[in-house]
Amino acid sequence: MTERIVVGAALLDGGRLLAARRSAPPELAGRWELPGGKVEEGEAPEAALVRELREELGVDAEPVERVPGQWPLRPPYALQVWTARLLPGSAGPKPLEDHDELRWLSPGELWDVDWLDPDVPAVREVAARLVTGYASE
Ligand SMILES: Nc1nc2c([nH]c(=O)n2[C@H]2C[C@H](O)[C@@H](COP(=O)(O)OP(=O)(O)OP(=O)(O)O)O2)c(=O)[nH]1
After folding, report:
1. Which of 16, 11, 8, 124 is nearest to 64 (CA)?
2. Is the pLDDT of residue 115 over 70?
3. How far, in Å, is the centroid of ligand 1 from the Cα of 36?
4. Range of the domain at 110
5. With a 6 A CB cut-off, is 36 part of the ligand 1 pocket?
6. Where in the numbering of this chain does the Nudix hydrolase domain appear (predicted)?
7. pTM
8. CATH code of residue 43
9. What is the DSSP letter of 115?
10. N or C: which end of the chain has fewer CB within 10 A?
């Protein structure tokens, strides 16, 4: 079975990370994730990330850097994560699709939300980078 990639965005702004609460499907609703979605056939993952952030949150964003690692989801899917930032002039994120609540989490709040299980190691990687400050502008 060919592996299919789901991209998640660790959208960072002012040293905070955006978390999004899923509204569907029922088995995932209420859990928190990095906004994103499935990479389409022939699409680059970075392009999928930009597209999904526009569709789901109404923002103009750009990928910054791949977070090392890949985390298995329900086969054939696997999660890859990029840090991302809002472009100048972008609207602020709104839960337009798939989510019913958004939260900007400071480093001390990263574990206040109930992340989907596969996101936990990804958020841990992002947390290590937030603390060392490389993405905290
Ligand atoms: N977007 C996203 N999905 C995640 C994360 N962690 C995780 O387990 N998932 C799961 C939830 C879903 O089963 C799947 C992604 O599906 P999705 O519904 O977000 O993707 P999509 O927008 O492309 O959906 P669709 O076109 O099939 O409606 O991966 C995450 O951090 N971000």
Report:
1. 11
2. yes
3. 6
4. 4-132
5. yes
6. 2-132
7. 0.94
8. 3.90.79.10
9. B
10. N
Q: What are phi and psi of 26, to 5 degrees?
A: -55, -35
| Domain count of the fold of the chain | 1
pLDDT tens per residue, range 1-47:
689 999 999 999 999 999 999 999 999 999 999 999 999 999 999 99
Among residues of the chain, what percentage have pLDDT more than 70? 95
Q: CA triplet 131, 83, 94: central angle to 5 degrees?
A: 105
pLDDT digits (tens, 9 = 90+) for 84-106: 999 999 999 999 999 999 999 99
Strands 99-105 and 16-22: antiparallel
Q: Is residue 92 assigned to a domain? A: yes
The reply to whether ipTM tops 0.90 is: yes
> Mean per-residue pLDDT for 56-69?
98
- Domain-embedded: residue 84: yes
Q: Does 23 fall in a domain?
A: yes
**Residue with CA closest to ligand 1 atom 12:** 37
Contact 56, 8 (CB under 8 A): no
Calculate how far, in angstroms, residue 50's C-alpha sits from the geometric centre of ligand 1: 14
Q: Tell me how far the alpha carbon of residue 28 lies from the centroid of ligand 1, in angstroms.
A: 10
Q: Evaluate: CB of 123 within 6 angstroms of ligand 1.
A: no
Task: Tell which one of 4, 38, 98 to mutate to probe ligand 1, the residue whose CB is within 8 A of the most ligand atoms.
Answer: 38
